[in-house]
Amino acid sequence: MFDTLTLAALPAEGEAIRPAIRAIAEQAIANASADVRARSWSGFDRDFSRLLGRSGFLGLTLPKCYGGAELGPFARFVVVEELLSAGAPVAAHWIADRQSAPLILNYGSEAQREYYIPRICRGELVFCIGMSEPGSGSDLASVRTRAERTAAGWRVNGQKIWTTNAAHGDYMIALLRTSGSAGDRHAGLSQLIIDLKAPGVTVRPITDLTGDAHFAEVFFEDVELPADALIGEEGEGWKQVTAELAFERSGPERIYSSVVLLDAWIAHLRDARRDDPATCALVGDFTARLGTLRAMSIACTARLALGESPVVEASLVKDLGTRFEQELPTRIGDDLASHPDEGVDAELYRTLLYVTHIAPSFSLRGGTREILRGIIARGMGLR
Amino acid sequence: MSEFLEPFERMLENVSTPAAVRAIERGGSPDAMWQAFAESGFLDALVPEERGGAGLALADVQPLWMALGRHAVPLPVGETMIARALLDGAPDGPVALAVAAPGQSVVVPFGLVAAYMLIESDCALHMVEASGALTGVVASLAARMTCNDLPSPHSTAPTSGLRPIAAILRAALIAGASGRVTEMTAAYANERVQFGKPIGRQQALQQQMAIMAEEMVAARIASQLGCAGGFPPSLVAAATAKAIASRAAARVAATAHAVHGAIGISEEHDLQLFTRRLHEWRLADGSESYWNGLLGRERLVSDARSVDFVRAHLQPEAATG
């Protein structure tokens, strides 16, 4: 069962890129404290993303004619691994590079490819993904926000929520209803590119419990879009979104969200010279799981490299990966607080609490745990 | 790899049937089944070619070991492969593996059906005729053996000892049996009807079985990692393989029984052939906490980032196909 998910080596073309991306990542985090680096996913730095673009580290899997590097998913794996394990800020290019550009490449018109993809590869465009709505989170097929045909193109009315980076974004790729009603489920959904500066678009940031505001609500009031805002085929939005999510779920980002905390904790243990059996067993448990999850993620990347869309395998790795990511702050917190005489420095304490408070999002973003397990169960032949 | 695996699997399907496994577990002679393995040539898979073996890499043998677990093979086939690879001139017959200090009493998996035991004691390897008492656990093929009056050593033990090698075998057996148990459980959930529909349609069960599949795949990949770096394995590779597999063993067995209901713990149902082994192999050659402890100690003396540490120690070589 799931026999295609099998150990794969990172080929030399992927490893070759590591020293250069590491040098850039190290520079970016030189003065950043651990609690800032722990925000890697949501660290928003347009200058850094443009530097990555100039240095050839964006659009790694995309064709050269659109400004990409044609290096394949393994090279991208290495770049993401280096950025996240250093804790570099990735938010300003993250979604565009991972999801929007491959989506536009696969389903977009030639004009859309030529306009958007080179700019994404240069790190100039920030995209966000308009999937969730009030009342439709995990039940994504129930979206109600509607795009109606007009003489000139499309008119959009409705609301999106939990949209990462909408407040600093340039474009949203939105899943919208272009025909039928919410009761029609998968039918009648389409993906459209929305310029977030267009009249009628209002973005309202949502401050989270850590004090950050990388989510937003986005309101559309008679937003007029040109005819070529549509990506792919009208009514094919569900199929396109499903394929897109395999990109989102399979990568190392589903393992490394807490890795800055893990390293900060291990540095603390070394400073405290603590290596009793219980401590070693906890460190070893995390290490064995990290190594195995990394191998599973590379195995998934190998399926992408073969041109497959490993939806079930990616769900499996993501669920196991987020369980690991979420367990880290809980168990590290228990470990540190069960040694009250040891003394924890302020930076480690802030890092621990930041990761602890944001960790619930790890199993929400990109598909909830229960939805992923449903996909796995279907893959087991149970539905 | 499939060129070896397919004939091996076919042989296992023929010789290691549930009825044959039960017969040996009830004290029947294992000689006929052993003969099939001896004649197959697979016992020399890890022996270098210059010594007359097949010279396969550990990564090539890993799927064979998983297949032994998938078929609940009631003989120390993997152990014998290891003993033959380690020793020039190992005796014919099934060999069990043990690590024991002088005077220590240990449980030796497959000790009751082995002709010999390869024992590591005081950093040396001793080959002795198999002996030992029943453990008292019904249907178990393990023997309880006290390590006394060993003959002069056959050779020195590998630098890291016999335990890491035995542990990666155990991890592969667990991965194989976990795969089998997961498939049996999914099939049963689709057949068994309650409340008017197959229980596999119940979301609560689907959620549990998805986790089971995750643990099963993790055990398989960890086992592959354990075998990827060559023979003998590094401490980090062995620890990762056995810690992840042992952790999975208990969880997979628990979910399998929960889904099967009472019938699964009956003797007549085949599930028990696999879940009894999962628990026995979880304990054999170090449980998850044992290996996590060793791995953690190794990790703490390195000032590398965690990702760099696992990259350096668990880097599979390019696949051989």
Main interface: chain pair and counts: A-B, 54 and 58 residues
Q: Describe the global form of chain B.
A: globular
Helix content of chain B: 40-55%
Judging from the principal axes of the Cα atoms, what is the shape of chain A? globular
Q: Provide the succession of SSEs of chain A.
A: HHHHHHHEEEEEEEEHHHHHH
- Give the C-alpha Rg of chain A: 21 Å
Let me know the largest β-sheet of chain B: 4 strands, mixed
Helical stretch tally of chain A: 13
The beta-strand count of chain A equals 8
Task: Look at the helices and sheets of chain A and give the structural class.
Answer: alpha+beta
Helix count of chain B? 11
Counting DSSP E segments of at least 2 residues, the number of strands of chain B comes to: 9
Q: Termini separation of chain B (Å)?
A: 6 Å
Indicate the mean pLDDT of chain B. Answer: 94
Estimate what percentage of residues of chain B fall within beta strands. Answer: 5-15%
List SSEs of chain B in N-to-C order. Answer: HHHHHEEEEEEEHEEHHHHH
Biggest sheet descriptor of chain A: 4 strands, mixed
Question: If you had to describe this structure to a student in words, what would you say it looks like?
Answer:
The complex is a heterodimer of chains A (383) and B (321). Chain A is an alpha+beta fold and 383 residues long. Chain A is 46% helix and 13% strand. In chain A, the strands form two sheets. A four-stranded mixed β-sheet of chain A has the order 1-4-5-8, covered by helices on one side. Chain A has a four-stranded antiparallel β-sheet with strand order 2-3-7-6, with no helix packed on it. In chain A, a hairpin with a 3-residue loop joins strand 2 (146-149) and strand 3 (153-160). Chain A is globular, with a radius of gyration of 21 Å. The mean pLDDT of chain A is 93. Chain B contains eleven helices and nine strands. Chain B has helices spanning 2-15, 18-25, 31-40, 58-70, 77-86, 163-191, 203-228, 235-260, 271-283, 288-300, 306-313; strands spanning 95-99, 105-108, 116-121, 124-129, 133-134, 143-146, 155-156, 193-194, 197-198. In chain B, helix 1 (2-15) runs parallel beside helix 4 and helix 8 (235-260) runs antiparallel to helix 9. Chain B is globular, with a radius of gyration of 20 Å. The N and C termini of chain B lie close together (6 Å). Chains A and B meet through helix 9, helix 10, helix 11 and helix 13 of A and helix 6, helix 7, helix 8, helix 10 and helix 11 of B.
